[in-house]
């Protein structure tokens, strides 16, 4: 069997539409800021991509600021906003590390933002306030009550930012209806190239740029644009409107049912809450996260212990901690994230490998305690 990839939340494969657009764009040469014919040809491709991203979010093209990814988009909004930031305890590190003085709203045991506490924090924060809460969590897949969060923030006159990285293409969110002021997205989670993302802005709210220089991206983000990345993002975004997840959700649900039948003590995180259709995060008693990730890797399956970490080390999840997951389960979590190419055969293979490890771990345990 070929290697199995079950880590789509970390990065998705390049979509054939993005690949075709990039291959075509490789023929171009020039800097989009140059006024000659070559430069203008690149500019025209960039603006076409900007138009498509704007259309997806039903905003004006001038509201789309291309960045190097969602990490930069998140830093741009959090560091560039002047005022108090209220975020949640389960945000991506690119939000949490960008402002250590931000108020952090708690989540319940299923990973949903505590709206009562959010309201308290909004009351405490006088003056200009930004509520920054993700649409769906990258580790557990838990979907946040975005419409309620936005309504609440508006009642207190706060602005809203949404890290929509994991939700784009997986949830049918109505951006025209929701209308947050700022949205972060990342290309490589939806089949575009790595190293490209965007921040959708409300041009009426002042924002200080992070990177200054030549004044590209309407002065919000200087530096020669990553034209190939932008073109790949423009090419795939339209496709995100029409993706179907029913079959994938069925595979994910089957996976969870089969695992819980084999091991009733297995703990699925966030499962009673609404979750992304492709994500399963669970802890198996007795099986350490890093042992599992290494075992699966040796058996040809790529999965993750939670969020992908730059050091390659598995660290304890701040998301599960915020959900008050007790210590043994914290060290036993595994995230399986499916994508459009995931097959039933791959899920069968995953379960077989999981069961081998489970049986081995538990017979070793029994031997050790002399049972
Ligand atoms: N936010 C979330 C929710 C994410 O899952 C990620 C990627 N793991 C990021 C932000 C950062 O995205 P990028 O890789 O484009 O910097």
Explain the overall architecture.
The chain has 13 helices and 12 strands. The two termini are 36 Å apart. By secondary structure, it is α/β, with parallel strands linked by helices. It folds into 2 domains: 4-12 and 244-370, Aspartate Aminotransferase, domain 1; 16-241, Type I PLP-dependent aspartate aminotransferase-like (Major domain) (Aspartate Aminotransferase, domain 2), CATH 3.40.640. α1 runs antiparallel to α8, α2 runs parallel beside α8 (227-237) and α5 runs parallel beside α6 (146-155). It has helices at 16-25, 37-57, 70-80, 93-96, 115-124, 146-155, 175-178, 227-237, 246-262, 289-298, 318-322, 327-330, 344-369; strands spanning 4-5, 64-67, 84-88, 103-105, 129-132, 159-163, 182-186, 197-200, 267-268, 279-283, 301-302, 333-337. It has a 7-stranded mixed sheet with strand order 2-8-7-6-5-3-4, with helices on both faces. The chain has a 3-stranded antiparallel sheet with strand order 9-10-12. The chain has a two-stranded parallel sheet with strand order 1-11. Bound molecules: 4'-deoxy-4'-aminopyridoxal-5'-phosphate. The site of 4'-deoxy-4'-aminopyridoxal-5'-phosphate has 14 residues, from α3.
CATH class placement of the largest domain: Alpha Beta
- The percent range for helix content is 25-40%
CATH architecture of the largest domain: 3-Layer(aba) Sandwich
CATH homology group of the largest domain: Type I PLP-dependent aspartate aminotransferase-like (Major domain)
What small-molecule ligands were found? 4'-deoxy-4'-aminopyridoxal-5'-phosphate
């Amino acid at each position: 069997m070929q290697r199995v990839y079950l880590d789509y939340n970390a990065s998705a494969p390049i979509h054939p539409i993005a690949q075709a657009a990039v291959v075509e764009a490789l023929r171009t040469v020039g800097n989009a800021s140059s006024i000659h014919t070559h430069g203008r040809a690149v500019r025209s491709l960039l603006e076409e991509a900007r138009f498509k991203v704007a259309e997806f979010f039903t905003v004006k093209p001038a509201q789309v600021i291309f960045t190097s990814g969602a990490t930069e988009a998140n830093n741009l909004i959090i560091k560039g906003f002047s005022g108090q930031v209220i975020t949640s305890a389960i945000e991506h590190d690119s939000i949490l590390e960008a402002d250590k003085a931000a108020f952090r709203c708690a989540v319940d045991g299923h990973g949903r933002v505590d709206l009562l506490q959010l309201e308290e924090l909004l009351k405490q924060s006088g003056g200009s306030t930004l509520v920054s809460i993700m649409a769906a969590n990258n580790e557990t897949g838990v979907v946040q009550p975005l419409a309620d969060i936005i309504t609440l923030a508006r009642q207190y006159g706060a602005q809203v930012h949404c890290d929509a990285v994991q939700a784009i293409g997986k949830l049918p969110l109505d951006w025209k209806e929701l209308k947050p002021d700022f949205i972060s997205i990342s290309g490589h989670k939806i089949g575009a190239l790595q190293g490209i993302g965007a921040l959708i802005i409300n041009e009426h709210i002042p924002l200080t740029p992070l990177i200054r220089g030549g004044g590209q991206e309407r002065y919000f983000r200087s530096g020669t644009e990553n034209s190939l990345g932008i073109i790949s993002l423009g090419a795939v975004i339209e496709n995100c409107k029409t993706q179907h997840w029913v079959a994938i959700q069925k595979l994910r649900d089957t996976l969870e049912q089969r695992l819980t039948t084999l091991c009733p003590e297995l703990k699925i995180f966030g499962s009673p809450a609404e979750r992304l259709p492709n994500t399963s995060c669970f802890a198996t008693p007795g099986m350490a996260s890093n042992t599992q990730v290494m075992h699966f890797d040796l058996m040809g399956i790529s999965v993750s212990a939670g969020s992908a970490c730059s050091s390659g080390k598995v660290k304890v999840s701040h998301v599960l901690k915020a959900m008050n997951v007790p210590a043994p389960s914290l060290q036993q979590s595994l995230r399986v994230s499916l994508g459009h190419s995931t097959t039933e055969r791959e899920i069968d293979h995953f379960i077989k490998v999981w069961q081998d490890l489970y049986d081995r771990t538990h017979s070793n345990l029994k031997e050790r305690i002399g049972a």
